[in-house]
Write a structure and sequence with these properties.
Blueprint: H1 2-29, H2 33-36, H3 39-47, H4 53-63, H5 66-69, H6 75-78, H7 87-95, H8 98-103, H9 120-131
Helix pairs in contact: 4-9
Bound molecules: heme C (HEC).
Amino acid sequence: MQKIDLRSFFILLACVTVVVTTMNLSSCSSDNEEDLFAPDEMAMEEDTLPISYATQIIPILENNNCLNCHNESGANVLGAGNVLEGYDNLRVYVDNGALVGVLDGSNDYTPMPPGGSITSFELELIQQWIEEGAENN
Ligand code: HEC
């Protein structure tokens, strides 16, 4: 009887050890980057990546329906002749200031998209892309 109790005790001990070890391991693996790097450093790290025309700017134009009215085929009717589809076409509106003008609430421009607005984060990405030289990247 006593032998069995001792055996149970060791089995229990083994179980506890396994559980504690697992908890330590999982808490270690959940030490994500935020714990390893200060949040500021992470933000800076992200900031140093150049904004991409192909993977970040075009999706903003698509998600906000800009290209529904400003595509190469329909712009004459819906977009009043302003074509934003394609890098060279968009670049015209980057260089003359109209792209940011319609997005940031400048009085000189008709706000876009009509009846709405893009998010401030999207606007920041566009502004940063332009600051970085508005490259076809
Ligand atoms: C429903 C159709 C429609 C959508 C959607 C739309 N636009 Fe426009 N856009 C127009 C029209 C119409 C004009 C001409 C407005 C005017 O001259 O007052 C225009 C003009 C512009 C101009 C030229 C402004 C100038 O003064 O030179 C830019 C740049 C522009 N839009 C950007 C955008 C962007 C960026 C989006 C998406 C966030 C967008 N548009 C969404 C219809 C649209």
